[in-house]
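Researcher: Please generate the 3D structure of the following complex. Treat every line as part of one assembly.
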Amino acid sequence: MCKFVKNENKNRMNGIVDCGIYAHGRRIKQVDELKEVDEALINNDKFVWLRLKDPDEELLTDIQNRFGLHELAIEDAHRAHQRPKFESYGSTYFIVLRTIKADEEQNRLDFGETHFFLGKNFIISIRHRSPVPFDDVRTRCEASPLLLEKGAGFVLYAIMDFIVDQYFPIINVLEEELDKLEHKIFKEKYRRETPAQIYRLKCRIIDIKRSVSPLIDICNKLMRYDSELIDSDIRNYFRDIYDHSIRINEMLESTKEQLSMALEANFSLTAINQNEVSKKFAGWAAIIGVPTMIAGIYGMNFTNMPELQWKYGYPFAIGLIVTACGLLYYFFRRSGWL
Amino acid sequence: MCKFVKNENKNRMNGIVDCGIYAHGRRIKQVDELKEVDEALINNDKFVWLRLKDPDEELLTDIQNRFGLHELAIEDAHRAHQRPKFESYGSTYFIVLRTIKADEEQNRLDFGETHFFLGKNFIISIRHRSPVPFDDVRTRCEASPLLLEKGAGFVLYAIMDFIVDQYFPIINVLEEELDKLEHKIFKEKYRRETPAQIYRLKCRIIDIKRSVSPLIDICNKLMRYDSELIDSDIRNYFRDIYDHSIRINEMLESTKEQLSMALEANFSLTAINQNEVSKKFAGWAAIIGVPTMIAGIYGMNFTNMPELQWKYGYPFAIGLIVTACGLLYYFFRRSGWL
Amino acid sequence: MCKFVKNENKNRMNGIVDCGIYAHGRRIKQVDELKEVDEALINNDKFVWLRLKDPDEELLTDIQNRFGLHELAIEDAHRAHQRPKFESYGSTYFIVLRTIKADEEQNRLDFGETHFFLGKNFIISIRHRSPVPFDDVRTRCEASPLLLEKGAGFVLYAIMDFIVDQYFPIINVLEEELDKLEHKIFKEKYRRETPAQIYRLKCRIIDIKRSVSPLIDICNKLMRYDSELIDSDIRNYFRDIYDHSIRINEMLESTKEQLSMALEANFSLTAINQNEVSKKFAGWAAIIGVPTMIAGIYGMNFTNMPELQWKYGYPFAIGLIVTACGLLYYFFRRSGWL
Amino acid sequence: MCKFVKNENKNRMNGIVDCGIYAHGRRIKQVDELKEVDEALINNDKFVWLRLKDPDEELLTDIQNRFGLHELAIEDAHRAHQRPKFESYGSTYFIVLRTIKADEEQNRLDFGETHFFLGKNFIISIRHRSPVPFDDVRTRCEASPLLLEKGAGFVLYAIMDFIVDQYFPIINVLEEELDKLEHKIFKEKYRRETPAQIYRLKCRIIDIKRSVSPLIDICNKLMRYDSELIDSDIRNYFRDIYDHSIRINEMLESTKEQLSMALEANFSLTAINQNEVSKKFAGWAAIIGVPTMIAGIYGMNFTNMPELQWKYGYPFAIGLIVTACGLLYYFFRRSGWL
Amino acid sequence: MCKFVKNENKNRMNGIVDCGIYAHGRRIKQVDELKEVDEALINNDKFVWLRLKDPDEELLTDIQNRFGLHELAIEDAHRAHQRPKFESYGSTYFIVLRTIKADEEQNRLDFGETHFFLGKNFIISIRHRSPVPFDDVRTRCEASPLLLEKGAGFVLYAIMDFIVDQYFPIINVLEEELDKLEHKIFKEKYRRETPAQIYRLKCRIIDIKRSVSPLIDICNKLMRYDSELIDSDIRNYFRDIYDHSIRINEMLESTKEQLSMALEANFSLTAINQNEVSKKFAGWAAIIGVPTMIAGIYGMNFTNMPELQWKYGYPFAIGLIVTACGLLYYFFRRSGWL
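Model: Done. Output below.
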């Protein structure tokens, strides 16, 4: 174990997390100082795997010179805030991916970035604001010496696969939230918050899509480019990631489409509710209005109103009122207004 | 009959449903143990048709070695939950299709999967959660020895055709449901459930589309790829499936479009209903309000109100009220508010 | 005249409507029995034009053998219910078109199908559920011997042109219906049926589009395919049909777009109507409510209410009521609520 | 000046407006009779510019023979009502453009057509229902002999440029109408006509788009086709028209998009208005309803109602009413309902 | 320093801002009179960088002749009001970009234009209505002699990069405004201005998109065109701008999409508000209506109404009224109407 790996939280030298030299599918050397890689870089049978995290400019310049990287790619790697992309600088590939992590406590998504430099016999991975280290990937790679023997391209595949696999739980959470929203819309009474929740979920999907959709194109290039950087046996593996990206995209697409439909349906239901409120109101207004009208009539002060002198005038009026209300109630009930 | 075919429900050995060796368009041998296929795999005149259902890992590994399949494809075939796709691994094709079955009792669709490995002289079909066996397909294939003679590609066509044919009844059911919805929206009174029903139908279409639309691309590749795996005479047959896929897609597309239009129309009608409720309410409110007002006026306690002393004051007031109500009723009726 | 042509309604032998042999742009022979065509099929200077209507399976099998057609195409031709398409089977083209006829009495569209087999020296047209025979086309073709000399391709053009020309009146009817709807929406009072009418018109357009839009692709193929089946001089003519198809598509597209806009506008107007109903109701409610309130006040039973004893108390109260109502009316009128 | 040009309104011979023979960038001859062009058509150094307006069939047939034009193009040129298109008939191009003219008095657009036949040494322009003659274009062309020397292609460019330039004022008018609509929607009170005006403006844009958008494709072909009909130096000039077409399209696109947004915004505002009407109505209903209730209570006929006997009972009741109304008014005002 | 640079606001000679001759990555000469550039233009090792601002026609003609520019490009450069574009005139490129500057005081965007002529050994930049001069770009370029040595292409890159970098703050402002709108819609009470604000923000995005989106295509051409005008080492740098353009486009796209969603959500909330207003109104109407009804009943003038004579009739009636209102209030409260 090299001295700067010990503790992720410890102050790592320059931002290097781990560095090893591989030959014939095995890790043959743990690199403690960067200059040790020079020998490996000119040896066709070996390759260097260098893992960085939030490196400072000085380290990046050192690496640029040692590995012969293009100035523009190094600038991008330093500034981060790139969109996912694949760029070929002649003998080196520069790849940017987004990592996503759900911060469940705060109910938001944390977007990070991972950059890669892939050369003939080296792979450099640089994590920016992405919390999960690639130790598991290293373990898994070193457990497949036959594939690791094919060169640094397999390491690239392994890390990309690892990153893409982390998208699935995120999307499952989105789909669950959609299910909850559906339930709220169609089963429960309408709620004021529903439009806001649909809006937020859709915004989140737009954000994730911007991270995921360029992956399809990136994988396509990695599969098709007939370069010596990636062994032809490994190229099939990128098709696997390509497939995952398409599936994730489809899932996001249909979730988004369903959300739009849900908003429309919610809106339709609001209008139907309004209709029902109006009908109920109209019904009860009539049931209160008719007695008021009858009472008003018998409250007129005409000297000659025979009913007023009737012995049972008052019960008759009350009966009239009750009958009228009963009929109205029955009528509204039957026609579905109440 | 081989021993492990007898009963679908019986515990089949390893998940093998049926295995036969074909030559010159005829089934020449029923395979009881997998090792019997080895001889056929190196004979250009014969081909093996192996049918599996939910195979376990052990069997898949055995098959992988015996037929020389790619590790990634075997992994996909084991995990299932793939999207429909076509992948060429040099000398083998790996194809994934979705099967759909309407579970009418529970009013939902059951999605299954069928995977294929097509090689120079073998075809392997693997069913996952798809209930309908391919015994009919076998019967039909063996009835066309002239086409079966062309090799395993024809078997692939026959199974794909069988799967795609099962989509049509599903779509007919969707179209019938749309018709019912249309009737509800335009003929009957509006119902609270309509938006939910439209929403669910649309979701179902999205699900089916995700299963069906990749088929177009798959058939395209099977038609165009100029490989020796599929006889050129058989390629025309895949055009038939291609055609069906396009038709299914078009049907889904227009059903979906009609549903969107139906939701909008439904919404428009809700608004028109609201309008009518408001008008009716306004009309009756006036018809109740005017007598209340007149009665209120004759209920005032002024000492000097000549009408109150009239002999026919009371009938006059009632007459006034009835006339006013009658006029209002006539007026509202004419202008369509009642 | 061959014996089976006499009467469309008579029981035609096997479904053959007409069959002739053409050479150098002229009809040189009327075929009475199918076997007579064999000699023409092997003669490069002649071509056979065979017209069928709803043929039975037996006849189709006979034709398949005689003309050397592909089994799949024959199956399609028998089953009908195809979408419009172009398929090249090596030396033969198989083309499917939809015919549309407005059934004005029942206010619906009748969709039929016409299939074509075009070979080096034959053209077979098969009508399914399409009522209009191609006698006019035959007359027109035989009137242009210079073009008919170019071979069976010209006959294909002539029939396609005839079919496509029948689309235009259909679309004109749709456009007229749209005009009527526009008038209803913007000029007349709103009607409950408008959304349903818009919906139905849009569905009809979707149906027609499914029949027409594949035509563009079919013509494209007929124009581009550099095969000997269609003389290069004739290819320009298919551009004419291509042009018509694009125009029809555009007309359908804009009619559809206008319908969507009309639905939205109609909906907007419903909302505005609702607004106006509410305002009117509010205005009149106030005009009825205020007198009721004033009358109520003078209906209170306080012993000490000076106005009640006034000589002109009653006229004063009535004056108050009339003034209040007048002011309210004036106010609501000015602000557009009444 | 040839005899038949004198007066546009005079009965022109056969529909010919002007005809000239050009050589080395200069007009060398005014053609009076069509047969005079024959000599020029076989001379590589000269070209004929023939301008027609609504020609009759006889003239077109004469021209077809003389210039060797394709029958189908002549048919199109005669029937007019074509969509804008570019068609290459081997040695001749046939081009159709739409001309648009705003008829401000009747507030509608007049669509005309101009057809072109471009050959190796001739250009024929045919105006259909398009009122503006190309005299200005002729003047401008003849003022650039260096470009005119490049052949008939430059004349084509000059006329197309002239036609496209006339689109801009039309679009400016549309944009102004949009501005007026915006003002109406957001600044003034809502109006019943707004949805209809938005609808009409959108229909107009759809119409113009159908005339303009094919231009992009036409220019593209004129720029790319590597034919000898258009001098390579002139091809750059068509890029200019191409550019204009794209700009016009973009302007139409964004105007249309803004109109859709405006309709939505207008609809939103209608709903907000409805909200405000409802609130205002509710507020005033309460302010009228509460006094009615209080008055009703003091109108009850209980023998034992102490307030009725109070000396200041009546002022007290009035005070109660005024206070209640005042409080309600204050409360509704504060919460924005009034 | 050349004499005409001194002061941007001073009357510059002819519109020239600065002109220098560069060789081997260094500025070797400050040009005072245009004719001095002639010698540099024929020297492959040197290149001229000429900066103009709103040049007059005379100067442009001089430049056209001296640098051999195409007449059409010069015309465009003079008229300005072009859409962003890239045009190759053989040995020269003509490029148009839009500059955007937020005028915060007036809360609007100022759109300017910058045109470029790039030749083998010159670059001419022409600013139209764009306020920010390129002095900073010059400083930065001259600080990278290694890149400047690659020729005028690097200067083009540097200016384009400078212009594109100015888009980002504009977009950040838009995103902030969207955030504010979201807050208004979901947190505060609805406001009448919201639809107008959403509309205006969307219009602004459409305007910016029209300026930015053609950039992607322009960069693509600059990256791909294999011409000697741009050194192959410099081409990678245009990929950087390409990347920025795509990012800006994506940001605009998602902001626009969010705005559409926000408008819909806002509309949904307006409808929900309407619902709540209706319910509240209905509730209070009942609470006022019921006492009025009860009071009306006890205001009837029947001679025989026992309650009226009760000692506690009046308190009983009041109690009845209060109880009824209380029950209604409780009931409405519980069901969420109040």
